[in-house]
Amino acid sequence: PHLERARVVQAVKRLYFDKLRVANTVIHEPVTPQVGELLLTQAIAAAVDVAYEKHPTRAAEFVQRLDRYERRLARLHLSDEVLAHFPERSRMVAQSLAWLALGIVGAPIAVYGWLHRLVPFVILRAIWQRTAKKPLDRTHISTTAVLVGLLVFAPFYAACVAVFHLFFGWPATLWYALSLPVTSLLAHYYGREMRRFAASLRVLTIRLRAPTAARQLLAERAALIELIAAERVQVREEEAEQTKGA
After folding, report:
1. Where are the alpha helices (H) located in the chain, listed in sequence order?
2. pTM of the entire structure?
3. Taking a C-beta distance cutoff of 8 angstroms, is the pair 57, 208 a contact?
4. Around Cβ 95, how many Cβ atoms within 10 Å?
5. Per-position DSSP letters for 118-171, written without gaps between them
6. Using one digit for the tens of pLDDT, what is the confidence trace for 98-146?
7. 55, 59, 62, 134: which has the fewest C-beta neighbours closer than 10 Å?
8. Distance in angstroms (rounded) separating the CA atoms of residues 80 and 83
9. Among residues 125, 117, 121, which one has the least CA distance to residue 186?
């Protein structure tokens, strides 16, 4: 039961987190994004517990629809995140063309950046895997990355600059040194955007070749969001009635 509820909490978070963050009634003071996400996730978990206890029929309906939705996603090799980012075919086509242009223009810069970040990246990944408490402990991994990243990238870039200076001298070395952190960061974002581009092509292909299946998926996703919104309204009304009664 606990695993089932955890799965529902994660599903609600994927489907409704952005809407909950916009219409926030949980966080009333400035906090970091990580703390804000944690507080909203705790609020979602509490609401799921209330739904199971007070509205079991609605909770069962949500789980049934969620199972059907996730099975269809799995058959099409899609994720909810990918489907959510590309709901409109016209927008998908425009974004895909934009990413294609970005990929062509940015490829030389990305290759240059990755050639210089590949060695320190491999070292960092090995350190993350050894120091993380468990495979999905992303908070610990991020902390380790911040602490170790400077100790890995800085000496490696310094060595590259020293070697470059032996062959080319100044002022070429200065421009080379300035290019390293910039192109390394651009290469990181380039890789992320190209992964999104590949995902968008996958969704676009499905929407063009199987438009009925795509519409059904989007309709099921919208229905799940409506169930979440209805439950949220119901819970808030019940809380308001309890407050008045008290």
Report:
1. 2-22, 33-54, 56-75, 80-85, 89-131, 138-168, 172-209, 211-245
2. 0.55
3. no
4. 17
5. HHHHHHHHHHHHHH-SSTT-HHHHHHHHHHHHHHHHHHHHHHHHHHHHHHH-TT
6. 777 878 888 898 899 888 888 888 877 777 667 655 444 444 445 555 5
7. 134
8. 5
9. 117
